Each structure stands twice: as structure tokens, then as C-alpha cells.
Amino acid sequence: MYIIIQSVITGILLGGLYAVIGVGMSLVFGIMRLTNIAHGDLMILASYFTMLFAMEIVGNVFLALLITIVLMLILSFLIQTFLVNRVIDKGPEPSLLVMFGVSIIIRNALILIFGANNRTIPNPLSTTNILNSPNISISGGYLVNFIVGVAVVLVLMFIIQKTYFGMSIRATASNRMGAELLGVNTKRIFAYTLCLAVATASIAGLLIGQTFVFYPSTGPQYLITAFGVVVIGGMGSLGGTLVGGILLGLVQLLSAHFFGTGWQTIAGYVFMLVILTIRPQGIFAKARR
Amino acid sequence: MKFNKPIKVAISVLILIVLLLMPKWGSDRFINIFILIFLYMSMGQMWNLLAGYAGLVSLGQQMFIGIGGYTVAVVCQSYNLPLWVGLIVAPFVCTLCALIISLPIFKMSGDFFTIGSWIVAEAMLLFFTNWSFVKYGFGFTISAGRVLTLTHRYIMALILGIGSVLVVYIALRTKFGLGIMAMRDNEGVSKVRGVKIYRTKLNCFLISAFITGLAGGAMHLFDGYIQPYAAFSIDWTVTMVFMVIIGGIGTIEGPILGAFIYVFLRQYLLNFPGVSMLIFGAIALIIILLAPKGIVGLLQDRTGFELFSVRRSIKAPKLPDKPESASQNT
């Protein structure tokens, strides 16, 4: 019984991390109608950058994260301006394939530079438990992930809903032509959106690096996690990603408990496929199409 | 540069004869390269059928490579049956899997289908690494392929490569093919005009599963070893995407040219380990941005030359502005 409660708690905490992983993808999809297939690889790239800066250059994780975010913002702005904006008007397939190309390049560049070995970002919190009783324990690292996850989602919701910048983003999302006519530079908004998404991906990269081991080819795995979170929560709904992340975390942890840890990831994938089959617009989204 | 039909047929037959006689004159290394070209050509051709003609951008084609390879491995190794049994069973197992997979995956459209197919393939990879019957992640040695001589392999690959081109060509020249292209150009209109969208997409998916599975089986039979992480690797699909994009998406000649470029480039890049996929990704990216129709598409725009044209030429010199009557029949 305690083990199930433990699984539920860990699942919910893991869900916070999954929400950060998925929220950037949800943003990009909701606003640009682009499935950012390089999202996972951008995240792992951020993990490597943070690791590099934290361990070799500045020695401080927060400073390293800041530098990483700046670098990733520049990179994503370049990707958006020089690659995606050139094909985004030609329909969904070319931009999907462009991002696929970007993901292949990132993944193989990482293999070339860092090698295929497992890496991790050291985290003092991951070994300390916040709550330590004989039956139930809560890992500090997971709790921090959860808090950061909720915070990131809330901040993004604030930006999108309350600020002037967010208003222009929403205008672009709901009617691109109309926004353009009212003086919004929609391609610039797309670039900013990708930047926001990549900033969350950088945070996700740090958390992933501190929680799990990562190597260059883990990108697709997190892409699928992100996609699953977004699909379960509803494409384009930021609050939904939090719910989607928690549901996915619960499904994974509970199936690990009932079927064994080897089946944990498969169970998550099957859950996503079931959701995609019965409610492609997500559990919580209003039917759009 | 317009060619008449007899000249095109003559060119095709000449190429075929040269290819058939290659074991007589080619060196071993050359023949090995052509084996790869034909195998990759069939895979690229199938991805092209899905993405270029049916509008189904699948990133899960590697699952059919894996399932095909594992079917050959299990049939020939675990059950000790002769190798041709494996090669016959493999494509049918893949088609059956595709039929089952199509139930959930065809509920999705567009980008959802793309990532959905990828999720299925990744789930399949994890399933195989957790399945004791196929020895988890350790893989199999497939010893049945050792009896094959180089000529046997070459002929098998040739049949597969040429066969895949013919299958796509014939499929596109029929009413079914008209339906596919109508669906690609405008799904709504073609549906109203009587194209059975679901059935048409499903048929494309099944054909591609059949031939990709066969190619995967042959590939692993020739390699003599199968291991889930390599067999279900996304790199297979990356290769297919590369070949089709660079050759020309939505043309039959595209994947043929793409397979040649891919294999020769890969042979050359073997001297620089680690950078090959990087360069393939970069080339594909540049091609999408600068020449979205690929090399063949660029040539066709400039010269109008098509070796395997699936278009129907209209006999009447000029038609009034009304939709083509051909799509009515489908």
C-alpha cells in the first residue's frame, strides 16, 4: 500500500518535470502550428551546455543556466530567422523536415564533440530526502523539479495572458493575417515564441541533467515525452501541460510498480497512443477541428 | 529535351540489362555497393510513396526494418527453417503489424501522424528490448545468410530495388494512384469526388510496410546479425528522408538518385567517422531550403525530362477551364 502511495507521489513530482519538458513544445504548437521535432535535442543540447559551464567554466549551476539560456536564445533566434521562417508559409511538412534536419545535426554534433558516453550534472539535492520516513520518502531533487515545473508554467501563463507581448502572441495565434494587419510582425513573434520555448527547454535541460543521465541520443526520448505531455494535456494549452505531465508521470510510475520497471516507458507511450486515438485534441482542450 | 516513349523504354531496358549482367563484369566492392544502393532504393521509394504521394510523413518506418529483420532472424534461427521461408514470412508479418498499427495511428492526421508513428516505433524498440523470446537487447546472429554468394545477394537486392520502383510506378498509374495524388493535392475535394481516403492511405501504408519489411529482412540477413537498438534506430528513417529529399520528393526518380548519392557519399564519408550523419543532415537541410523539390524536381522544372512519368498526357491540345475528367472515375 505504501509502495503505491510512494509511486503516486513520485509520479506527481515527476509530472512537474515533464511539464517543463512539454511546455515549450505546447507553446510552439499553439502559436506557430509547428511541431518542433527538434525540441528534445535542443533540450539535451542545453543539458550539455549547462554541464560544460557548471563543471568546467563558471562552477555555478545558476550562472551556467543563465549563460546557457542566452546561448540557446541566440541559437533559436538564428534557427527561426534563417531556417523556419523561410519555409513556414509552405505548409507543415517543410518546416517539420527542417526541424528534423536541425535535430539530426544537433544530435550528431553532440556525439562528435562530447562522445556517446552517459553524462550527468551533479546535484547535491538528488541524494537528500526532504521527507524520510520508513514507508515514504520524497527526494529533494524531484521536489525541486516539481516546484520549478509549476513555476515555469505559471510564469509562462502570466506572460501569455497578462502582458502586452503576450497579447500580440495570442493575436498571432488566433489570426495571423489579422495580427499582421494590426501591425504585429508575426514572423518576429514566431521567433520570440521559439525563444520562449527554448528558454523553457534550457531549464528542462538542466533539470534532466540533474535528475537522469543523458547522452546525445536521448533527445528523441524527451521529444516523445514532451509530445505525450502536450497530447495528453491538449495542444497549445499551457495549464494542460501541467496536468498532462502529472498524468504521464503517474502512468509511468504506477505501471513500473505493477509490471516492472522495464515496461515503464512503454506504458507511457501506449497511454499517449490511446489518448491520441480517442481524443487527439487532448483530454482538456476544447475540440478545435 | 523531350523523349518519346519508345526511347524511354529502350533506355530503361538497356539500364536493366547492364544491371542484370553486373555480376559478370563488376568487382566485388562495386557489387557490394550496388547491393546497398538497391536495398536503400526500395526503402526510400516506400518512404516517398508515403510522404511524397500519400501525404503521410512517417518517422516510424524503422519499425518495419526491425520487424522484418527480426522475423527473418526468428524464422531462420529459432525455428531453423530455410531462409526463403523467412524472407516470405517477413513482409507479411510487417503488413499484419502495419494493419494493426493503422487502427490507432490513422486516427491522427498531419504532424500528429508523424510523431505518432515515431512513438509506435520507439515503443516497438522498447518492447523488443524487454522481450525474452528475442533475447532482449542482445540480438541474434543470423547464420542462414552465410550460404548466399555475392551474386545471389546482388540478384535479390536487384529484384527488391527494381521491384519497388515497379510497384510504385504501377500503383501510381492505376486508378488507385490517381486517388493517391488527388488526395495529396486536396484531401477535401478528392473525398467529395469519391476517393476513399482511409482505404487509399491504408493501402499505401501496407505496401510500404510490405516492401520496407522485406528490405529490412534482406539487410539483416546479409549482415548476419540483428540487435534491437540498431534495427529500430531512427537512423533508418533519417536515411530514407535524406534520400527522398535530396533526390526529389514526390518523384519516382528521386529516391533512385537519392540512393546512389547516399551510398556513394556514405562510402566516401567512412574515412571521416562520426561526421557522416551530420553532413547528411546539413545537406538535407540545405536542399529543403534551396530546392524543395530536390535534384530531380529541379531538373524536371528546367528540362521537362521524366523517365518514369506517372502523369497522364491529355490528347486534346487545349482544354477549357474545368477540372480534369480523370478524377471523376476514382
Give the SSE map.
The complex is a heterodimer of chains A (289) and B (330).
Chain A: H1 2-32, H2 39-57, H3 61-87, H4 92-114, E1 129-132, E2 137-139, H5 140-162, H6 164-174, H7 176-181, H8 186-211, H9 219-233, H10 238-259, H11 264-278
Antiparallel strand pairs in A: 1-2
Helix pairs in contact in A: 1-5, 1-8, 1-9, 1-10, 2-3, 2-4, 2-8, 2-9, 3-4, 3-8, 5-6, 5-8, 5-10, 9-10, 9-11, 10-11
Chain B: H1 5-20, H2 22-25, H3 28-53, H4 62-78, H5 83-105, H6 111-129, E1 140-141, H7 150-173, H8 175-185, H9 187-192, H10 197-223, E2 225-226, H11 228-231, H12 234-247, H13 253-269, H14 276-290, H15 294-303
Walk me through what this model shows.
The complex is a heterodimer of chains A (289) and B (330). Chain A has 289 residues and is mainly α. Chain A has a single domain, classed as ABC transporter involved in vitamin B12 uptake, BtuC, CATH 1.10.3470. Chain A has eleven helices and two strands, in the order ααααββααααααα. A two-stranded antiparallel sheet of chain A has the order 1-2. Chain B has 330 residues and is mostly helical. Chain B has a domain at 27-233. Chain B is built from 15 helices and two strands. Chain B has helices at 5-20, 22-25, 28-53, 62-78, 83-105, 111-129, 150-173, 175-185, 187-192, 197-223, 228-231, 234-247, 253-269, 276-290, 294-303; strands at residues 140-141, 225-226. A two-stranded antiparallel sheet of chain B has the order 1-2. In chain B, helix 7 crosses helix 8, helix 8 (175-185) packs across helix 10 (197-223) and helix 12 packs parallel to helix 14. The radius of gyration of chain B is 20 Å and the shape is globular.
